[in-house]
Amino acid sequence: MKFISWNIDSLNSALTGTSERSALSRKVMNAIAEMNPEVVALQETKLPSEGPNKKQLEILYDIFPKHEIVWNCSVEPARKGYAGTMFLYKNSLDPIVSFPKIGAPGTMDYEGRIITLEFDGFFLTQVYTPNAGEGLGRLRERQIWDIKYADYLETLDKAKCVVAAGDFNVAHREIDLAHPDRNRKTAGFTDEEREGFTNLLKRGFTDTFRYIHGDVTGVYSWWPQRAKTSKINNSGWRIDYWLVSDRIADKVLKSEMIDSGPRQDHTPILLEIDL
Questions:
Q1: Are the C-beta atoms of residues 69 and 60 closer than 8 Å to each other?
Q2: What is the pLDDT of residue 127?
């Protein structure tokens, strides 16, 4: 099976925007469709609480004509048009869809951050992990989230094998970002966040990219937009992951980044697995 995950950073911009960046996003979306994946996971959709409008759905169904679409959006008391996730899955599949709350602090459970698809033999779940924020103002809440999310995945894993995708907002190891020394106290590379991800893996999960590629360096999934030359210089971070239950790691065939050309921010990530 072929799965693709992508932090799209505004679905509406990708579908209907008129900027150069929007055009680049559409090229990436079309490239994903051409790969004919069984499932596409999107994070940071930034849709309103009611979800995609008619025009957005028409465009999505035109790009992915053989897929069903489900979404989870930020709702009150959380901010409007914030975070959000979406799954597009082939209409030949028939999963049970859930939108779990994990007992996260603050408004995190209302920000549309998790969707889970349950199939006969496994769970496929995606997450948009909260960022620790400017000045690490949300770091303590993020630490609680990491524990609650690990608890949630472990609970799933006790019932069936798990495949988990998403923007985890953490570079786990020094080799997962270009400049570890200058980012020790930056959101996404604090000791606390890295420990949270280590704890998640210790619950019985495998980072599929490292499983396939070992300690390869210089391969990233995100390049900050604020630095206009970050992608040209490959000053990136690997913060997007495909995880699987340890017991099915040997079924992973591919785990890699999809080339998004000159578009900065996140690039899609691919998982091929024999399920």
A1: yes
A2: 98
pLDDT, residue 57, reads 98
Q: Which amino acid is at 252?
A: V
Q: Judge contact between 87 and 63, C-beta under 8 A.
A: no
- Cα 145 from chain centre: 15
Pull the structure tokens for residue 184: 């020790």
Whether 149 is catalytic is no
- Is 61 among the catalytic positions? no
Residue 99 CA to residue 85 CA, distance in Å, equals 10
Place of tokens 């030359």: 229
Mean pLDDT by 10 residues, the chain (275 residues): 98 96 96 98 98 97 97 97 97 97 98 98 98 94 98 98 98 98 96 98 98 98 93 97 98 98 97 97
Q: What is the pLDDT of residue 171?
A: 98
Total-model pTM: 0.97
The domain segmentation of the chain, as residue ranges, is: 2-273
Contact 240, 5 (CB under 8 A): yes
pLDDT on residue 56: 97
By C-alpha distance, which of 125, 147, 128, 88 is closest to 239?
128
State the catalytic residue, choosing from 9, 109, 167, 240: 167
How far, in Å, CA of 203 to CA of 185, rounded? 26
Q: Return the axis-axis angle of helices 54-63 and 20-34, rounded to nearest 10°.
A: 50
- Point out the catalytic residue in the list 110, 128, 149, 220: 128
Tell whether domain 2-273 is in CATH 3.40.50.150: no
The predicted pLDDT at position 226 comes to: 87
Tell how far CA 271 is from the center of its chain. Answer: 12
Tell me how far apart the alpha carbons of residues 51 and 154 are, in angstroms, rounded to a whole number.
29
| Cis peptide bond upstream of 224, omega within 30 | no
Residues 6+ apart with CB under 8 A from 260: 24, 28, 31, 266, 267, 268
